[in-house]
Amino acid sequence: MNSSVEERILDAAFEVVDTYTISGTRMHLIAEKAGMSQANLHYHYKTKKDLLIALLDYLQCNFSVFRDEILKKAPATLQGKMSVFFEQKKYYTICDPKYDRVQIDYWSCGQIDEQINKSINESYRVWFENIMGVMLDYRPKMDPEKAKILAHIMISMMLGSTMQYLANPNFDLDRHNQTCLELLCSALDAD
């Protein structure tokens, strides 16, 4: 498939899912947003589910590319690298919240759809492994089981703060993230 056509379709799908949710998304809405016929859209993606899975993969790729870019620029310390994950989540939560709204919608749909659940778990696995990689790069002698649980806790902290901020924009995301980072770094250094 032509990558520019694929991107146009996936960008359109992203906008439609954000506007109508996954359950309210219809292929004709995506086709309209992408400026193509519904038949042409079905040529590229046979079903809505095929398109939704491709969209989730596309969003994960965008997350990973952005995270890799800012990880390269972050201070070469445990706290410097760990802060990247909180800063990236904050960026999406505040500056481009459709990513978080769509991610939460995928999580909800994944509770009843095995294929979407598998894809959302793959997305979390990438995030988890990136966090684990940073932890073990800076604390190579750390017990891997402890690193695993701390990575899961960190993801829970970020997702929890996102939900709180989206529900209440007065939630102090900066203070929350700084406190979480300090707690995690303290736990990583304890032993």
List the helices and strands and how they pair.
Blueprint: H1 3-24, H2 27-34, H3 38-44, H4 48-73, H5 78-95, H6 98-110, H7 114-138, H8 144-167, H9 173-189
Describe the structure.
Helices cover 84% and strands 0% of the residues. By secondary structure, the chain is mostly helical.
Summarize the structure in short:
This protein has 191 residues and is mainly α. The protein has helices spanning 3-24, 27-34, 38-44, 48-73, 78-95, 98-110, 114-138, 144-167, 173-189.
N- to C-terminal separation?
52 Å
Q: What best-fitting shape do the alpha-carbon axes yield?
A: elongated
Strand content: under 5%
Output the radius of gyration.
Answer: 18 Å
What profile does the largest beta sheet have?
Answer: none
DSSP strand count: 0
- Output the helix-strand order: HHHHHHHHH
Structural class: mainly alpha
Individual helix count = 9
**Which blocks of ≥5 consecutive residues have pLDDT under 50?**
none
- What number is the mean pLDDT? 94
Based on the model shown, name its key terms.
single chain, 191 residues, mainly alpha, 84% helix
